[in-house]
Amino acid sequence: MRGGEVLRALRRILATPEEIIVMKASAIAPPRCPDCGSTSLVRIGGVIKANGLRVQRFRCRVCGRTFTELEGTPLKGLHDIRFALVVAYLFLCLGMEPKIIARVTGRSYSTVIRLAKRVKQHETFFRDLLVSLGVTLGTECYLK
């Protein structure tokens, strides 16, 4: 993989609005009730996160539980979704160690290692999300 391809992939990830990333993630893992598993849901507005991202809220018609569209996805609880995708790309495709990712990005090692563990645990979700965003994963992209 050449350096230009890596830079294009990283630019594509960083240029994608978080709303689009959340929409693609919802397409990969459609919202369902975390309590009863029902897909019979009602949209009940949204929540604006601290970074300005609007996240859709739902209420289950079966049990009445309310939750957001990020519930049940590996993106739940993340403050910077784009950075998580950068870590996923560098970790999955380039095989970079978390220590190196922390040095290159300037983020703390503890943040990067936590994200790398989440990426490793949910590898197929992150691969599908990267592909849906147009970041191509070559044959050399694999989890070591």
Please explain how this structure is put together.
- The chain has 144 residues and is α+β, with helices and mostly antiparallel strands.
- The protein folds into 2 domains: 101 residues, no CATH class; 43 residues, Single Sheet (N-terminal domain of TfIIb), CATH 2.20.25.
- It has 6 helices and 3 strands.
- Strands 1-2-3 form a 3-stranded antiparallel sheet, with no helix packed on it.
- A hairpin with a 5-residue loop joins strand 2 and strand 3.
- The longest helix is centred in the N-terminal third of the chain and has 13 residues.
- The protein is elongated, with a radius of gyration of 16 Å.
- The mean pLDDT is 87.
Give a concise summary.
The chain is α+β, with helices and mostly antiparallel strands and 144 residues long. The chain is 47% helix and 12% strand. It folds into two domains: 1-29 and 73-144, no CATH class; 30-72, N-terminal domain of TfIIb (Single Sheet).
How do the helices and strands follow one another from N- to C-terminus? HHEEEHHHH
Compute the number of structural domains.
2
Number of strands: 3
Which whole number gives the mean pLDDT?
87
Strand content: 5-15%
Task: Report the total helices.
Answer: 6
Low-pLDDT runs: none
First-to-last CA distance: 16 Å
Please give the largest β-sheet: 3 strands, antiparallel
Structural class: alpha+beta
Helix residue percentage? 40-55%
Task: Please render the helix and strand layout as text.
Blueprint: H1 3-15, H2 18-28, E1 41-48, E2 54-60, E3 66-68, H3 81-92, H4 98-105, H5 109-121, H6 123-132
Antiparallel strand pairs: 1-2, 2-3
